[in-house]
From TrEMBL:
Gene: atoE
Keyword set, alphabetical order: Membrane, Transmembrane, Transmembrane helix
Lineage: superkingdom: Bacteria
Transmembrane segments: 23-44, 56-77, 142-168, 188-208, 249-266, 272-292, 313-332, 338-363, 424-446
Name of the molecule in the record: Short-chain fatty acid transporter
Species for this entry: Zhongshania aliphaticivorans
Pfam families: SCFA_trans
Upper taxonomic lineage: Bacteria, Pseudomonadati, Pseudomonadota, Gammaproteobacteria, Cellvibrionales
Length: 449
């Protein structure tokens, strides 16, 4: 069964004509935020400008963490052993429909483990599937394969790296006085969340193949991409000097990688299981070093991964500026209050979901969103006697939902895949529509509306 092309065509036409580059999108969102702040709050243009400028450096430390996450995940995904595993997975599909479903599921499972792993592994497996299908004469539409990889990202905030859930489960968090400590067994590890994960993954695994184009519209992978340009060149066998021997000594990188993993294991032994972005980062780096051929090989893997983080390093300070402007002018409070004022105990969860989805377009950061919206909705939940876990999950779902139309997180995926945003966004808009129905239905069944 396929979705008729006439149903997808309007989205394709709109995206091709009007969807800008992710950096231009960030600039436009900055201008829109400025105009809204001046129009609907008491802030003057000067105050809004000051708040924007003050916000620019506010997420620099997180930007550095983010960059290491993507570099480490990319390097790990391109080590020899992981590449062999990915090539094996890439050779599994025996039809185009199975190829799209496999990529979506692989990216979704990766996103549940860690959001960065989902993006990098999803893009890498999409490329591997395209290469293997090309070898076997199976024609697949490469943009849809990559869109399927991004579709898997729609479940990231339901998994182990869920920012909001991990935040409220941490002793001493800033809202502990208002809501106490909410363990992850009451949020991401509930049966309701698990069932919704399975339904969402099943839905995208079915929907992605249904969006495949007709034979004459298929765009196969560029022949130039058939050879993996992300793999570093083989090191020369002419190793003569002591320095060269050290650079190519696998034991050095293995010892360092093992030390990082032992540190993480010891931390778990001392403090119990916990997951932070730093732990995720050192897990990726440690595993990458352990699997790399040598210290120099790992350096080359990181160098090749750098293309995925350059645009993010450029853009994230501007999103931090948007965050600063929304907080400094009170715009985020106004937006959240619109939803809270119209809510009852029965509809607050849906209001939190829709509000989070809207704010995510301006602030593509799960943790950043919770920091500005969490206090408002938790206060409303206390007044209306709504379960805190519903609010946490509603904001998490809203955040991940509109990533399907927010281009920021496509940057590392598209850099690996070698495509442009406009080639995949029409498909992710369809994912956005379908998963929106799923998330709202799930929240209603949880008692959020």
């Amino acid at each position: 069964m396929k979705i008729p092309s006439w149903l997808i065509k309007p989205f394709t036409t709109f995206v091709e004509r009007y969807y800008p580059d992710p950096f231009v999108f960030a600039v436009l969102m900055s201008l829109l935020t400025f105009c809204l702040a001046v129009a609907v709050t008491d802030a003057t243009p000067a105050v809004a400008l000051q708040a924007w400028g003050d916000g620019l450096p506010s997420l620099l430390s997180f930007t550095a963490q983010l960059s290491i996450t993507l570099l480490g995940a990319h390097a790990l995904a391109h080590t020899d052993r992981v590449q062999r595993v990915l090539a094996f997975i890439g050779a599994l599909p025996r039809s185009a429909a199975a190829a799209y479903a496999l990529v979506a599921l692989t990216a979704g499972i990766g996103s549940l483990i860690a959001w960065s792993l989902g993006l990098v592994a999803g893009a890498t497996i999409a490329r591997q599937v395209a290469i293997q299908c090309n070898k076997r004469g199976i024609r697949v539409h490469y943009p849809l394969l990559v869109a399927s990889a991004y579709a898997g990202f729609v479940v990231w905030h339901m998994g182990y790296s869920a920012s909001a859930a991990l935040f409220v489960a941490t002793p001493g968090h800033s809202l502990e006085a208002e809501m106490g400590i909410l363990p992850i067994t009451e949020t991401i590890f509930t049966a309701e969340n698990g069932i919704l994960v399975l339904i969402t993954l099943a839905a995208i695994a079915v929907l992605c193949p249904m969006m495949r184009p007709t034979e004459d519209e298929i765009l196969e992978i560029d022949p130039a991409l058939l050879k993996d340009s992300n793999q570093p060149e083989q090191v020369s066998n002419n190793i003569e000097t002591p320095a060269q021997k050290l650079e190519n000594m696998r034991a050095l990188s293995s010892i360092l990688g093992l030390a990082l993993l032992l540190y993480i294991a010891y931390s778990y032994y001392q403090k119990g299981f916990f997951l932070t972005l730093d732990i995720v980062n050192w897990s990726f780096v440690g595993a990458g070093l352990l699997l790399a051929r040598s210290p120099l090989h790992y350096v080359r893997l990181i160098e090749n991964a750098s293309a995925t983080v350059g645009p993010i390093i450029l853009q994230y300070p501007f999103y931090a500026g948007i965050l600063g402007m929304m907080i400094g002018t009170g715009l985020v409070t106004v937006i959240s209050d619109w939803f809270v004022s119209a809510a009852t105990a029965e509809t607050l969860g849906i209001g939190a979901f829709l509000s989070a989805g809207l704010v995510n377009l301006f602030i593509p950061s799960g943790g950043g969103q919770w920091a500005v919206q969490g206090p408002i909705f938790i206060e409303a939940a206390n007044q209306l006697q709504v379960d805190h876990s519903v609010i946490v999950l509603a904001i998490a779902y809203g955040d991940q939902w509109t990533n399907m139309i927010q281009p920021f997180w496509t940057i590392p995926l598209l850099a690996i895949a070698g495509l442009h945003l406009r080639q995949i966004m029409a498909y992710t808009v369809m994912i956005f529509i379908v998963t929106g129905v799923i998330f709202i239905s799930g929240l209603l069944l949880m008692g959020a509306g």
